[in-house]
Amino acid sequence: MARGKNLITYRVRKTSAISARNKVLNIFRKSKLQNDLINFKKFRAKARTLLRFSEKQSWNSFVASTNHLVSSSSMWSRIKRLTGPPRNHTFQPLVVHDQPHQTPPEICEILASTYAHISSDDNYDLEFLPHKTSVESAPINFSLSPSPLFYNLPISEEEVR
């Protein structure tokens, strides 16, 4: 019973910290005073601390409740609850010559033709074309440097976000 009361008290503190932060932000937006900015930064830091603590506590309770007795279906339902509602992956229509294109194959074809046009030889000076042709005909040697080049490194989690 005590754990439930602590959780409710914590939720009230978290929501009140967020609302207090928003109120102080509105005060600063209206006044533009240095003291109000400092006050807003203090409230923002408190709210951020509470939110981070909440996320950490939620993750710790999730991990603590996971053991060999948990069925895979209940585990997947927990994971779905943690990830939130599914995101809608829609494509914005691409307008070319006042005509919208919405399907992924159409958009891919338009982008590919645009990139092909941009990188075609028609866009280069006649003096530069022989140099470009000779450089492009040389094979690429990826083993020139002992350390991997930055564009050959695996994609990090920060880049995916």
Task: Characterize this entry briefly.
The chain is mainly α and 161 residues long.
Features:
161 residues; two-stranded antiparallel sheet; 4% strand; mainly alpha
Can you put this structure into words, describing what you see?
With 161 residues, the protein is mainly alpha-helical. It folds into 2 domains: 2-83; 90-139, no CATH class. The chain is 63% helix and 4% strand. It has 6 helices and 2 strands, in the order αααββααα. It has helices spanning 2-31, 34-64, 72-83, 104-118, 129-137, 157-160, and strands spanning 94-96, 99-101. It has a two-stranded antiparallel sheet with strand order 1-2. Strand 1 (94-96) and strand 2 (99-101) form a beta hairpin. Helix 1 runs antiparallel to helix 2 (34-64). The longest helix has 31 residues, at 34-64. The protein is extended. It starts with a helix and ends with a helix. The mean pLDDT is 84.
Distance between the termini: 39 Å
Residue runs with pLDDT of under 50 for 5 or more positions: none
How many DSSP H or I helices?
6
- The quaternary organization reads as single chain
| General shape | extended
Question: How many beta-strand elements?
Answer: 2
* H/E element sequence: HHHEEHHH
Rg, Cα atoms, Å: 27 Å
Strand ordering within the main sheet: 1-2
Largest sheet: 2 strands, antiparallel
Going by helix content, strand content and strand pairing, the class is: mainly alpha
Rounded average pLDDT: 84
Helix content: 55-70%
* Content of β-strand: under 5%
Give the tally of structural domains: 2
